[in-house]
Amino acid sequence: MKTMKLITLILTVFFLKSCGNTKEIASTQNNKSIQNMEVVSGAYEIAKIGADDIFPVELSLEFDSKTNKVSGFSGCNNFTGTYSIDGSHISVSQLITTQAFCKPKINQFERKFLEYLTNASSYKIVNDELILIRDNKDTLHANKRKSKTVFTYQQTTRGFFEKIWVTKDSITISNDRDLIDTKAAVCNEEDWELLMSLYKNIDVNTISELEPPSKTFQFDAAAMATVEIDIDSDNYKTKIFDHGRPPKSIEELVNKLLSMKKMMLKE
């Protein structure tokens, strides 16, 4: 009888210990699963589309987790849309693109990029690399962008509006105050490097204090103009000045932005 009780006690202890180990393993696996589920947010540079990893232009993708908006540059056009996340599942929809026309090779990459983006059904993030998946196959790879800079020049009157904004990927122009009708082109590396060199000569922390050389815009004698520089989530904006007469310290930057616009419209 004593032997039976001892055997029963040993089996009970073994059973309880096994259950505890099982719970610990399950808990560890759940924690690993939670750790691997990173939030899809921020700016990315496209590294691979299907089997292609060399592109004629730089492609970009940006997710805003606060508004569930997705946007980017697809090679010829800028695009915007919405996205939703449910666990490891992702859905991108309601994409709207600008209507620029580019060379056939660029258009081909653009169509493939947007197709893979909208057809993705799940995702994973490995070492800051976003991988979109369809039918258990990796279709699109994108590396997290460390920083983003945008230069914007805007001029407006009662009956006229123009906005120019330039990123490392593209230059975009719009005469539509709602920014629905836009024109876009690739920003070449030489222009971008010159813009960045001009930017480095400017103290962005003080551009909001720069006094305009003239204020004839107050009497409708000139268009109202401003310059904005966005660096990641930080925004730096000048006071309103007369179009054609920017503050001296940003004059070269303004002239470069306007010359880029002229060259784009000639192409």
Describe this entry's structure for a reader.
With 267 residues, the chain is of the alpha+beta class. It folds into two domains: 42-144, Lipocalin (Beta Barrel), CATH 2.40.128; 149-266, Mago nashi protein (2-Layer Sandwich), CATH 3.30.1560. Helices cover 30% and strands 34% of the residues. It contains four helices and 15 strands. The strands form two sheets. An eight-stranded antiparallel β-sheet has the order 5-4-3-2-1-8-7-6, with helices on one face. Strands 9, 10, 11, 12, 13, 14 and 15 form a seven-stranded antiparallel β-sheet that branches. Helix 3 runs antiparallel to helix 4.
Annotate the secondary structure layout:
Elements: H1 2-36, E1 42-49, E2 60-64, E3 69-73, E4 78-86, E5 89-97, H2 104-119, E6 122-126, E7 129-134, E8 137-144, E9 149-156, E10 161-166, E11 170-174, E12 183-186, H3 189-200, E13 224-231, E14 234-237, E15 241-242, H4 251-266
